[in-house]
Amino acid sequence: MALVKRMLQIFALFTCIQLQAGGNSEDIQALHELLQPITSLSAKFTQQITDAEGFALESSQGLFEVAQPAKMRWQVTAPMEQQIISDGNKLWVFDRDLEQVVIQPFNRNIATTPAVLFSGDLDQLDRAFYIRKVSDSLFTLMPESAGSLFKQIEIKFVGQQPVAIVLTDNLAHTTTIKFTELKINSGISADRFIFNIPPDVDVIDNTQSRAVKNAN
Questions:
Q1: Alpha-carbon span 7 to 1, nearest angstrom
Q2: What distance in Å separates the CA atoms of residue 58 and residue 67, rounded to the nearest whole number?
Q3: First and final CA of the chain: distance in angstroms?
Q4: Considering the entire predicted model, what is its pTM?
Q5: pLDDT at 9
Q6: Are 85 and 73 in contact (CB under 8 A)?
């Protein structure tokens, strides 16, 4: 379940909560100009988690899709199948190894990570972070919430495309997510953000506060 928990933390990057932060107005504007045009994004990803000494703890790869507002599909294909999908109302967390899917109401505070990147609400982004432009292609975002799971988030661009996100947590663990085969604003079917529950898996439906077995 460790990878699922980390996925939920990453998922919080694409949701938003209200905090207070800031930054130089020119730095904020520069990041706005890169993020504002993005209404949907799909990409393959690789994710690596390293400890404070740089030793690899976990690695995974898969497919990432996001569309405004608050729709996301984070699908790990290796080393084991796991998914987090949101249609903006419900959130499905599926673990193939456990043969289990957890359904819960979509909650913009789904994890304690205060973040918003591709939600489209850039005003929330400004309130959630202190934003600093390191270079034309690199920005750092410092959450000011005492309860944040992450100390710093970096977002890297090549041209107008976000190609990597690097997160450093309070244990000095680093999560590096790299995107390839990026498609920006290509149009993603709404069906991609609905999870079709496989047969014979345990279903924990927290929208109804009960656990069931899917017999389809």
A1: 10
A2: 27
A3: 25
A4: 0.81
A5: 57
A6: yes
**Cβ–Cβ < 8 Å for 127, 115:** no
SS3 2: helix
pLDDT computed for residue 114 by the predictor = 33
Which structural domain range is residue 75 located in?
A: 2-213
Number of domains in the chain: 1
Q: How far apart are CA 46 and CA 79, in angstroms?
A: 11
Q: Compute the CA torsion angle 49, 42, 88, 142 (nearest 10 deg).
A: 40
CA distance 143 to 179: 23
202 neighbors 97 (Cβ within 8 angstroms): no
- Dist. CA 42–CA 73, nearest whole Å: 9
- What tokens were used for 194? 């609905």
Structure letter (DSSP) for residue 192:
G
Q: How many CA atoms lie within 13 A of 170 on its CB side?
A: 11
- pLDDT of 168 above 70: yes
What radius of gyration do the chain's Cα atoms show?
17
* CA 92 centroid distance within chain: 14
The CATH number of whichever domain residue 170 belongs to comes to 2.50.20.10
As a whole number of angstroms, the distance between CA 208 and CA 127 comes to 33
Torsion sign, CA atoms 53, 57, 62, 66: negative
Nearest to 8 by CA among 80, 68, 95: 95
